[in-house]
């Protein structure tokens, strides 16, 4: 046990009228929502990197946080694991997730790095057995070390490609051993800064082959979880190959992997791509690749990925509405890929931030469920597309262009526009948020 959260009590549900900043007002894990426990809908996960590895720096200034595990090798890594599980207990959060280099320090060789990771995985396994906490997903950090400055799978140096493959195998094995529900491929530098030194076709083929190898390995070792890609349009590269959900789907189709891989969608990345969060959720659902969620938000006055804790209840409501309509996230969940502001120094700030984020998601779930139960959006959608249920309309989809044109001319079809009623539907949603 550590004393990092000394004096803080486990967070409890106190209801909407509570003014306690360290109490849940909406998150009540055993509450049934549409016949399913709230905890099972949301599947919250604490993220290792932003919660315990981020030092509070920005492009113009370094570390602001004073964490006792920031320096000290494996001893510090063991302390970090203790603090992580203490926070999981305080929040009663069911899952955690990690990058390998945030859980254990990089060694002088890959073999040493892997030994470090396996040692921390032993600690994870013991703590998971004692507490019942689970692993939502693991992933390899293929972006921080200078060897990956030109990408990992897309690197022009074949030795870097090979090193990345070896690193992924090690993290995949640990994720599999710990019963991870998913494995994420986060392409932090899989893109380009300039086309002057980039062979796009070659790099895409390398990335497709790399992903196919991971899928093959999944089946070889019997991993039952889901492989996820996290779309991101830019930052730090000028253009990343996993720009958004649509781009990822096109990539998966090209390499025959659309049935094997799904997406982990982040709010902030959706915004950077010029989309709304609910757009990316709805499109992933429509394409059959909705997997999991990084729950955060961007500052809309900043043009970069600020990774703040979610606090926009209406925005999250629309996303959860589409998740509910899709049947849920399956093996995925809501991982808090969110970080404190660099001036939020206290351990209590870390707990309060997660309490607020969990409450926003829980409140949004209740609102989204109420919209589903009301049925007004469903009825409006059905009415708008009702014409396509007519036999002649269904038959038209099997006709060629000429036959359709002849039909229109023969019957003198003159369509009359109908209102989309957007404002009425916006008002309907606002009844529940």
From TrEMBL:
It is found in: Cytoplasm. The keyword NAD does not apply. GO terms for cellular component: cytoplasm. Its main location: cytoplasm. SUPFAM superfamilies: Xylose isomerase-like (SSF51658). One of its GO terms (molecular function) is xylose isomerase activity. Mg(2+) 2 binds at residues 266, 269, 305, 307. Its EC number is 5.3.1.5. It is an enzyme of class 5 (isomerase). Keywords: Carbohydrate metabolism, Cytoplasm, Isomerase, Magnesium, Metal-binding, Xylose metabolism. InterPro entries: Xyl_isomerase-like_sf (IPR036237), Xylose_isom_bac (IPR013452), Xylose_isomerase (IPR001998). It catalyses: alpha-D-xylose = alpha-D-xylulofuranose. Its cofactor is Mg(2+). The active site is at residues 99, 102. It comes from the Bacteria. Binds 2 magnesium ions per subunit. Mg(2+) 1 binds at residues 230, 266, 294, 337. GO terms for biological process: D-xylose metabolic process. PANTHER family: PTHR48408, XYLOSE ISOMERASE. Belongs to the xylose isomerase family. HAMAP family: Xylose_isom_A (MF_00455). Homotetramer. This is Xylose isomerase. The lineage of its organism: Bacteria, Pseudomonadati, Pseudomonadota, Alphaproteobacteria, Rhodobacterales. The gene is xylA.
């Amino acid at each position: 046990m550590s004393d990092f959260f000394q004096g803080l009590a486990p967070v409890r549900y106190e209801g909407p009228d509570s003014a306690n900043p360290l109490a849940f007002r909406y998150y009540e894990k055993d509450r049934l929502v549409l016949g399913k426990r709230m905890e099972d809908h949301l599947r919250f996960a604490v993220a290792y990197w932003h919660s315990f590895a981020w030092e509070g720096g920005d492009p113009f200034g370094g570390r602001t946080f004073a964490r006792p595990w920031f320096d000290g090798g494996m001893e510090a890594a063991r302390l970090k694991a203790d603090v992580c599980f203490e926070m999981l207990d305080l929040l009663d959060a069911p899952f955690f997730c990690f990058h390998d280099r945030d859980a254990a320090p990089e060694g002088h060789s890959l073999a040493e790095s892997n030994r470090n990771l396996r040692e921390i995985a032993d600690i994870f396994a013991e703590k998971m057995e004692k507490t019942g906490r689970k692993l939502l997903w693991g992933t390899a950090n293929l972006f921080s070390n200078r060897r990956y400055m030109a990408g990992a799978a897309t690197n022009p140096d074949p030795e870097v490609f090979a090193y990345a493959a070896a690193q992924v195998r090690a993290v995949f094995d640990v994720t599999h051993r710990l019963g991870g529900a998913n494995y994420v491929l986060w392409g932090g530098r899989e893109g380009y800064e300039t086309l002057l030194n980039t062979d796009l076709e070659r790099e895409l083929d390398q990335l497709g082959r790399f992903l196919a190898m991971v899928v093959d390995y999944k089946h070889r070792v019997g991993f039952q979880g889901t492989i996820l890609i996290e779309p991101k349009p830019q930052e730090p590269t000028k253009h990343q190959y996993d720009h958004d959900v649509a781009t990822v789907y096109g990539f998966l189709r090209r390499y025959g992997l659309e049935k094997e891989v799904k997406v982990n969608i982040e709010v902030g990345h959706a915004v950077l791509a010029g989309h709304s969060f609910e757009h990316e959720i709805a499109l992933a659902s429509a394409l059959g690749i909705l997997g999991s969620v990084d729950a955060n938000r961007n500052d809309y006055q900043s043009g970069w990925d600020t990774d703040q804790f979610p606090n926009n209840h209406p925005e999250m409501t629309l996303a959860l509405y589409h998740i509910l309509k899709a049947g849920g996230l399956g093996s995925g969940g809501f991982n808090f890929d969110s970080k404190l502001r660099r001036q939020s120094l206290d351990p209590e700030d870390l707990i309060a931030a997660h309490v607020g984020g969990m409450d926003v998601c829980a409140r949004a779930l209740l609102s989204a469920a109420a919209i589903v139960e009301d049925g007004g959006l469903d009825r409006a959608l059905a009415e708008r597309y009702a014409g396509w249920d007519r036999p002649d309309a269904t038959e038209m989809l099997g006709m060629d262009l000429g036959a359709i044109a002849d039909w229109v001319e023969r019957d003198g079809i003159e369509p009359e526009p109908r209102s989309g009623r957007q404002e009425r539907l916006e008002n309907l949603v606002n009844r529940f948020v």
